[in-house]
Amino acid sequence: MAQNRTLIYAAAAVVVLVIIAAAAYFLMGGEEAAGGAGGEKTITINVGLLVDETGPTSDVGKGYALGAELAFKYFNEKGIYTKDGVRVNINYIKRDYAYNPTTAEEYYREFRDRYGVIAVIGWGTADTEKLSDQVATDKITYISASYSAKLLVKPFNFYPAPDYSTQACSGLAFLASEFGQGKLALAYDSKVAYSRSPIGAIKKAASALGLQIVGDYDLPLRATEADAERIAREMLSADPDYVWCGNTISSCSLLGRAMAKVGLDALLLTNVWGFDERSPQLIGEGGYGKVFGISPFIYPMFGQDVEGIKTIFEAARMNGVSEDQINLRVVQGFVNVWLLIKAIESVDSQDLQERGGEALKEALEANTFNLGGITADTIDYEPGFHLAYRKVFIIKLGENGELQLMGKFEAPSEVDCARYTIEEGG
Amino acid sequence: MPAGVFKESYEADMAIFRYPIHWAALILAAAAAVAAPFLIGKYYLNLLVVMMIFWIAAIGLNITLGLAGQISLAHAALMGIGAYTVANAALHLGVNSVVILPLAGVAAALLGIVLSLPSFRLKEYYLAMASLAAQLILEYVYSRIDPDQYTPVPPESKTLLGISLTDPTALYYLILAIAVVMALAAANIGRSSLGRAMKAVRDNDVAAEAIGINVQLVKATAFAIGGFYAGVAGGLYAIYSSGIGWEGFTLVNSIELLGMVLIGGPGRVVWGSLLGVLVMRTGWTMMESTITPFLVGLGLTVIASSAKYIVLGFLIVAFIIAEPEGLIAVLRRVKEYFRLWPYSY
User: Fold this and answer.
1) What residue ranges are annotated as transmembrane (chain A) (predicted)?
2) Does any domain span residue B211?
3) Measured between beta carbons, which residues in chain A are less than 8 angstroms from residue B322?
4) Whether the predicted pLDDT of A26 surpasses 60
5) β-strands A182-188, A211-218: how paired?
6) What domain range is B176 assigned to?
7) B164 in Cβ contact with B104 (< 8 Å)
8) What ipTM does the predicted assembly reach?
């Protein structure tokens, strides 16, 4: 027993040593800024990067984090200059909050109180919405990967895409115009703000889009094959022509696979995070010709000649990242940081240092941005209403198993799904 | 001059602060606690605030588990009751968050009594399973009542005597005052007849019943008091936070609280809980900031996502096997060693 106790004490001592080592690293501030180029006047700003690399949305979060980091490193290396020619070095502080809004708030406090960040590159819907009022109070520019419509009216929140509701309505309008009016089933995680975000708008816009809603189905964000099959079987009785999936790629792919397995012959349309280059393999042959994805950004495979995609490839090469890793998620992370860089380039150095996030916010509202042609349209924010644009790309999982770009699409202007969500919640 | 410390009255023997070193430590600790906002930045002040909130919650669980011996895996859910009471009262009724705080404690205490019902018939891991079920049911309810995956707590509801509690210094002093009062109360519960009854039930409930203790009443009271502490802690968390979400009151959080009590020292209600909170919260935060990103960088995302749980599990098992009385017992031995040195034999 005494020997056991000694062993356990020894193991506990190792754990304590690891924690002390971690503490030393933690107290020293973790990752630090790279120095500026010699001779130039350089200012350093701190920016928070909130990601999910280990939580329930890590299936898309890892690529996003890679894209954002690539962008920070690339632009720091290439040189970021304010309007008056002062070089800006960005010290980014990355935190993985595992998609837990409570943890996100802890990290936000760390960004603000410990590092004094002037901007945050954020991630999820619940955490971004939860922090949006605080962000406005703190005057910190927040560029998120949540395209929630509710954020459009939050003064310091931005994203370089249409909101989820506008995206969904555009995608569904495309299906109705291509394949005719029909019945629509909605599959999403009812306890997750991201998944639920466009549902109210879809329901309100359904008849104008030529659709009849036949049911809501609670598909977990971390669905198992059994969950997806159960939902697909439940849908059989409603016999929908179209199914909307509002989750991320893992659960939407499982649903696509399950629909084929149970013989549900409906077309599946997914939210932007529910479909990407991995979908053909994840969904399998049963879904060929029947699954569609929405994206505000061009897929790298379709944008070889697009200037912005070339820039991302250059950033990848510069940082020793294989081009095979550059997919839609990497693009999404990259463009968020790129938008921030564009804002920095639109302000004077003194303004940036003195007014920080407020100066960036005003720059974002005052200018029109083109991120090298990656986005489906140019980004033009209206003060008080930050809808970047309304168009989306539609991508089809073709009959041959390859992805096909169907082109850009936009919901009819009288169907204002962003407003529906803001007015009615979602 | 007498050699040693002599007590000449019952009051002196029963006093919380019995030795000169206690008074010296009290003065030093009080000075440090009062000066903290002026010595450390906002970031570390916020960490202290969170630690004190968890200290209150851990004290509650230590009363239920450590004193009365009733296992509860639903303590985070009880915190949730307090948090949702404060948040919803502030959001929908416009009630001041501080005013509603005692009610948050009472709501959780009432739920604690409900949770105590299985303990009348069940013991040990059967009771743990019953509380686990309660935790999961409440977790599900929270996930459904949150309108946006979180419930905002309006900043205008967070005031005390006209001072805004969104200011971390003001909030720190409020929570410090509440934590000290609740810790003192908990210390006295352990010394009271109720505390002794709880210990009797913990050690042998049949024998306790045989000597005339109303075992069911004691168990229900232990759950109620534990719930009250959890409810107040949850309510304070709602005041601290801009919004609360069900992810903050999950089974993992309950196990984290259990870990705090087991690692700190079950039965050592105040100091054991404090030690547990310090070790767990500090280690947890540091792991999330350093080890997790390091493992992610190596591509070990599956291990990264569970690394802290592996460490938590290891620590709980290690303490249960090697040091069931927790870190406080280790400290006590160290203290004894120095007290007797150089004549430790």
Assistant:
1) 7-28
2) yes
3) 4-5, 8-9, 12
4) no
5) parallel
6) 40-250
7) no
8) 0.86
- Residue B133 CB neighbour total at 10 angstroms: 14
DSSP string over A160-180:
SS--HHHHHHHHHHHHHHHH-
Task: Dig out the tokens for B167 from the structure.
Answer: 């200011």
Nearest chain B residue to A31 by CA: give it: B290
Q: Considering just the CA atoms, what is the radius of gyration of chain B in Å?
A: 21
Answer whether A181's CB lies under 8 Å from A210's CB. Answer: yes
Q: What is the pLDDT of residues B13-52, one digit of tens each?
A: 778 777 788 888 889 999 999 999 998 989 999 999 999 9
Question: Does the distance separating the beta carbons of A105 and B242 come in below 8 Å?
Answer: yes
- Strand partners of residue B337: none
Helices vs strands, H then E, count in chain B? 15, 4
Instruction: Check if the beta carbon of residue A48 is closer than 8 Å to that of residue A120.
Output: yes
* C-beta atoms of A100 and B247 within 8 A: yes
In a domain, B3, yes or no: no
Q: For tokens 């397995």, name the residue.
A: A261
DSSP bridge partners of A88: A43, A80
Interface of A with B in 86-145 (CB under 8 A): 94-96, 98, 100-103, 105-106, 109-110, 113-114, 125-126, 129-131, 133-134, 137
Q: Is B283 exposed, middle or buried (0-12, 13-18, 19+ CB in 10 A)?
A: buried
Phi, psi of A271 (to 5 degrees): -65, 165
Interface test mutation site (partner B, options A92, A117, A137, A191, max chain B beta carbons within 10 A): A191
Question: What contacts A360, CB < 8 A, 6 or more positions away?
Answer: A118, A119, A141, A340, A343, A344, A347, A352
Residue pair A147/A163 in contact by the 8 Å Cβ criterion: yes
B127 assigned to some structural domain: yes
d(CA B258, CA B243): 25
CB contact (8 A) between residue B150 and residue A23: no
- Sequence-ordered strand ranges (E) for A119-248: 119-121, 141-143, 157-158, 182-188, 211-218, 242-245
Inter-chain CB pairs, A–B, below 8 Å = 116
Residues of B in contact with A53 (CB under 8 A): 296, 301, 304
Min distance A369 CA to chain B CA atoms (Å): 31
This prediction's pTM: 0.87
Number of domains in chain B: 1
Q: What's the CA gap between B255 and B253, in Å, rounded?
A: 5
Say whether B315 and A53 touch across the interface (CB within 8 A): no
Domains, chain A, ordered by start: 42-162+304-380 (3.40.50.2300), 164-295+392-424 (3.40.50.2300)
Using the Cβ of A179 and the Cβ atoms of chain B, whether some distance falls under 8 Å is answered with no
Residue B243 lies in a domain: yes
**How high does pLDDT run on average in chain A?**
89
Instruction: State yes or no: pLDDT of A3 exceeds 70.
Output: no
Surface of A (315-374) touching B: CB under 8 A: none
Closest CA to B49 of B283, B284, B281: B281
